[in-house]
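Dear Dr. K.,

Following up on our conversation at the group meeting, I've run the structure prediction for Nudix hydrolase domain-containing protein from Chromobacterium amazonense. I'm pasting the input sequence below exactly as I used it, so you can double-check it against your construct before we proceed with anything downstream. Let me know if the numbering doesn't match what you have in your notebook.
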Amino acid sequence: MEQWDQARAEVWPPPEPRRQRASIVIIEHSRLLLMRRVKPEKEFFVLPGGNIKKNETPAMACVRETREETGLNVWLGGQVCVLEGNSRTEHVFVAREHRGLLRLGGPELAKLAPDNHYELVWLDAAQLRKVKLRPKALMPHCLALLEGRALPATEA
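The predicted structure tokens came back this morning:
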């Protein structure tokens, strides 16, 4: 008879793999580019970005997702932070340069509906302070970049 393995039983079922997301901070004329999301009785803002595909680095995903969602080509200036949420890890980069015609694209454009709205918007620091930015932990990083201050320290 097989013996009970207490150590294996404690990790069964195995934990779900953490979702990995890459996003970008794009600043132009002291304004931050955000994706405004509106669902029934819910409005929030996120940085452009999306899921990291298998065999893709966070930086590669950031460039690809930005082009898909916004139509912009970006050159990365570096990584701002890595945020750990309940179910995902978010790799946040800042754009050193961007070019192209800003337009909504990719899955966001395809999913547009009266009860599921996506919109690209530019917000200055005062406007940013008034909205629900997701994840919340991004706010101090985005404000620091907009206001030319040092980035806050992140927990390791």
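Two things stood out to me. The first strand starts at residue 19 and ends at 25. The chain has one domain: 19-147.

Best regards,
J.T.
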